[in-house]
Design a protein that fits this description.
Chain lengths: 514, 445
């Protein structure tokens, strides 16, 4: 069959799934479903907003609304991929961007509103309640604060993004975001070598390490060896003895190279997310109900441990061992399920309102739960962590990003005073530079950072940027923003904590928590 | 806030960077309209790869003042590729990518090349000011790296000659992770200098596959690597052929059932066999933007450049880091070249034979090029026959009787027990060439 014909046939097989194949391998069916149910509001569709939204549309987001009252200018043709050619100059930018995105993925529901976002924020706050999440791009400080209040009130997730010359930032603002499926890259296996339960202990006892047949010896799973030796060792040493002693003891037995590698994965003590949360009530989210059950479990059946995860890494002769781990995990799950149902009953909720798969996933991920909480931007703006600012400004790797953070706020103050951004126009550059410097220093003083300096070169650069929105920077920032949106919407992986400041000069961008 | 003082311009935003002087800029930055116009009119950029990264790169470059772009990719579009309209399935990726961007950005010229990177002449690559890579394989990166570094020439005192430096910007992504790096041959480490950065590919021990499978991937690879050749003999497995894939999947299921192993799905089968790299639009967007930004900065000097490796990880929070790697002075690829000392009487045939034995090269079936002249070509047959007489001539004569010079050799190298196409630079020095007889034996390094 000639190549082209074959590809067309493959195409008709299961189109919606295969279209998203590459990303399904990352966030799975559940994540994809969450994306398809989400409705996104984009404020301002310059390149920053458009590029962010584009990535989400490609990902299969359910619906979006673009809010932008501006008309296409000639300059937009030079930085915005989604604006048509010269003929669209003078027409609605939102309309153009919306049409492009609709064409990109015909499954998404696309709408636009020709309105200045600042106006909408001031006159119609309830507009935002209908969305899952708002991506607010290129807003000045004032509007950011107002929108933040609105979204917190309405419990709508919010992501800010801004491109400014070779600088910019992304900031998530949500009251609380809980993650069960955090999918960390590296995480210790739940082997319980230090604390084997009865079934594991008896299995280990059936195996004799001193077996003479080398083949049989080679096939002993390393877990068994470690449990045995750890047990012997604790019996003859006090708890204070260091790991080196254990290592020495183990290496005197003839073990394979593979085992030595695995020894590096010795479990650390259970680190439990001891979050201060009140007793669950009828308003508590599923997450907190399950956390309450988890706490009970750990204090009772768990004997200090969370439910067993159940899966073990691939190793020689592990089939029987696999069963032992899986059985315990299943038993722990059943206990958790009972406790969850008890709590649901206590708070007057339907016993089946938290599904089995949800509880199972929670048990599997019990050691990896994440809770993210974000300060409101107005709190951060009026009361940032001063020591952090000072420390960063003095650090070679952080001063660029921290400088940009301050300057990005300073330019908004500048605009409030002089009705234009510094360096926005070609004339009067020197004056703008000196004014921006004064503005920035007074801002630092207001925050309590007396004595901190901003590099003059950076202030000059900020004026040089002249509030430009460069496509490449917008694509980068938009990419970061869309990434965060995906994590927030799918509730998988961990969203960033803090403000990401982009430093396009030397790429020493930083995540600042202030 | 519209700029009411000056007439509207398409390059409204770029102008701020290119027309205005600055302090945190490159060493040869001459701001002005001329710089902007020169970039637009004369600078040529090659984008290698027209997949997720490549397409974004083209768009980013087109909207950063570049007008003369080329893109090369040997593949056709599949349904599973991101950002594809159904009617494009089956067409060459390079052609569709070029068309897409030219449609939206007026004035940009993008020449697509539906071909393998190895099939292009070296001259083709030399025509570009800078090469941007959006590839998904180590081999392809190595090849381009070899080509670009091959242009590099050194002075008497081993300093790289500026006009022979061919910069590259390389990006790669996998799920939420990615990297962007700047390679300036002779100055920053090249791809080969830092080859140790890449982890070894996952390979299962054969006995596990044959005797004691424990997980779904083992079952799949058993069907793929052991059962298929057993049943199909000489017929090679084609991962793009749905019938082949389905056969492997069915066999994997059988084996999994035999051993009581869960988890074999069609999707996993594809993933394992094709070594599919999961991809998301946002990571591609981020990395290509970083690459395009560096391309603009390198070409124009409008800001400092990335020094020299940026890593990005967006899965757990957000982490970006810049690492300044250092060149390997003895790098076989971007260094001055492996020194080969020869006697003036050595024939070309003997030289080619020596390459096979040389411990650092192990190069078989070598073709030899001296500057613009091909001294010997292994293929195609017509050219092989034409160059065959050279084999019996002294290399010294063929190279114009110079005491030392650079040659490039291209052939099959044995690296880590795998055969790979290899292009290497050699510094050939002839002993006794300047009339002074060297009493030491000087045959082959």
């Amino acid at each position: 069959m000639p190549p082209m014909k074959r590809k067309k046939e493959e195409a008709t097989m299961s189109e919606p799934k295969t279209k998203y194949d590459r990303q399904l391998r990352i966030w799975g069916e559940l994540g994809q479903a969450a994306l398809e149910e989400a409705s996104i509001c984009l404020l301002n569709c310059g390149p920053t907003g458009s590029e962010a939204l584009k990535n989400l549309v490609l990902g299969g987001v359910g619906s979006f609304t673009v809010v932008d009252g501006s008309k296409v200018e000639l300059g937009d043709l030079g930085n915005n991929f989604m604006v048509d050619d010269e003929r669209s100059v003078g027409q609605s930018k939102a309309k153009s961007v919306c049409a492009f995105l609709q064409e990109l993925n015909d499954s998404v529901k696309a709408t636009f509103i020709e309105e200045n976002p600042d106006t909408l924020i001031s006159t119609n706050p309830f507009f935002f309640s209908q969305f899952t999440l708002v991506i607010a791009t290129q807003l000045v400080e004032d509007s950011m604060v107002k929108l933040d209040r609105i979204c917190r009130e309405a419990n709508v997730m919010l992501v800010f993004a801004r491109s400014y010359g070779l600088s910019g930032f992304v900031r998530v603002s949500v009251k609380e975001h809980t993650v069960i499926d955090s999918k960390p890259d590296h995480f210790l296996d739940d082997l319980r070598l230090n604390n084997p339960w009865p079934e594991l202990k008896s299995f280990v006892e059936t195996i004799d390490l001193n077996v003479s047949d080398p083949v049989a010896h080679k096939h002993i799973p390393y877990v068994v060896i470690l449990v045995k030796v750890a047990d012997e060792w604790t019996r003859s040493h006090s708890v204070q003895d260091d790991i080196y002693g254990l290592w020495m003891r183990i290496t005197t037995k003839k073990l394979s190279k593979q085992l030595s590698k695995f020894l590096l994965r010795v479990e650390s003590a259970l680190r439990f997310n001891n979050d201060t949360c009140a007793e669950p009530n009828s308003n508590s989210s599923d997450f907190w109900v399950m956390v309450a059950a988890l706490k009970e479990f750990v204090s009772n059946e768990g004997d200090g441990e969370a439910p067993l995860e159940g899966s073990i890494p691939d190793m020689t002769s592990s089939t029987e061992l696999n069963t032992i781990y899986q059985s315990k995990a299943e038993a722990d799950f059943l206990v958790m399920e009972k406790r969850v149902k008890n709590i649901l009953k206590k708070i007057g909720r339907d016993l089946s309102s938290i599904s089995k798969p949800t509880i199972k996933s929670f048990c599997k991920n019990a050691r990896k739960l994440k809770v993210c909480r974000y300060r409101m931007v107005e709190d951060e703006f009026s009361n940032p962590c001063v020591t952090e600012i000072q420390k960063c400004l003095a650090d070679e790797d952080y001063s660029g990003a921290m400088g940009f953070y301050v300057l990005l706020r300073a330019v908004d103050r500048f605009t409030a005073n002089y009705n234009k951004f510094p360096g926005q126009f070609d004339g009067g550059m020197d004056e703008d530079i000196s004014r921006l410097k004064t503005t920035a220093l007074s801002l630092l003083a207001d925050l309590g950072c007396n004595g901190s300096v901003l590099p003059d070169d950076l202030i000059n650069e900020m004026c040089r940027f002249g509030a430009s929105e460069l496509h490449v920077v917008a694509a980068f920032i938009g990419g970061i923003a869309s990434q965060e949106v995906i994590k927030l919407v799918t509730k998988q992986f961990v969203p960033m904590l803090g403000t990401y400041i982009f430093n396009g000069i030397d790429h020493k961008s930083q995540l600042l928590t202030l | 806030m519209a700029d009411l003082e000056a007439p509207q311009s398409k390059t409204r935003d770029l102008d701020k960077l290119l027309l205005r002087a600055g302090n945190l800029v490159g060493p040869d930055f001459y701001p002005g309209a001329e710089l902007r116009d020169d970039i637009r009119d004369y600078v040529r950029v090659l984008v290698v790869g027209a997949g997720g990264l490549g397409c974004e790169l083209l768009k980013d470059l087109a909207l950063s003042g570049f007008r003369n772009l080329d893109v090369i990719d040997m593949d056709r579009i599949e349904v599973t590729n991101l950002n594809r309209q159904l009617e494009d399935v089956g067409k060459p990726k390079a052609e569709v990518a070029a068309k897409r961007v030219m449609e939206r950005v007026s004035g940009v010229e993008i020449v697509p090349h539906f071909s393998r990177i190895e099939d292009k002449e070296l001259d083709f690559y030399n025509d570009f000011n800078i090469i941007a890579l959006g590839l998904d394989s180590i081999e392809a990166r190595r090849y381009i790296n070899g080509v670009a570094c091959g242009f590099l020439e050194y002075d008497e005192d081993d300093t790289p000659r500026r006009e022979t430096i061919k910069p590259m910007v390389d990006g790669g992504t996998e799920g939420f992770k990615g990297h962007a790096r700047v390679i300036v041959p002779g100055v920053t480490p090249c791809f080969e200098c830092t080859i140790w950065l890449f982890p070894p590919q996952v390979k299962f021990p054969l006995c596990t596959l044959a005797e004691t499978p424990r997980n779904a991937a083992h079952c799949i690879e058993y069907a793929h690597l052991i059962k298929w050749p057993e049943v199909h003999g000489g017929k090679s497995f084609d991962p793009d052929e749905p019938e082949h894939m389905k056969w492997v999947y069915d066999e994997a299921i059988k084996r999994a059932e035999l051993f009581g192993i869960p988890g074999v799905t069609y999707s996993l089968t594809q993933g394992v066999v094709k070594n599919i790299i999961p991809a998301i639009a946002s990571t591609n967007a981020i990395i290509s933007a970083a690459c395009a930004l560096e391309t603009l900065k390198i070409v124009s000097g409008c800001s400092k450049t990335l020094a020299n490796y940026l890593t990005y990880n967006g899965g757990e929070g957000l982490h970006t880091k810049v690492t300044e790697f250092v060149r390997d002075q003895d790098c076989l690829v971007c260094g001055p070249g492996i020194l080969i000392e020869l006697d003036t009487s050595i024939t070309l045939q003997k030289f080619i034979d020596m390459l096979e034995e040389h411990p650092k090269l192990l190069l078989s079936k070598a073709s030899v090029k001296h500057g613009k002249d091909s001294l010997y070509m292994q293929a195609p047959p017509v050219l092989e026959e034409m160059h065959r007489p050279n084999l019996s001539k002294p290399l010294y004569d063929l190279m114009g009787r110079v005491q030392k010079d650079t040659v490039h050799v291209f052939g099959t190298a044995l690296k880590n027990e795998e055969k790979q196409s290899s292009l290497t630079k050699l510094r050939v020095v002839f002993k006794g060439a300047d009339g002074v007889t060297d009493m030491d034996t000087a045959i082959g390094a």
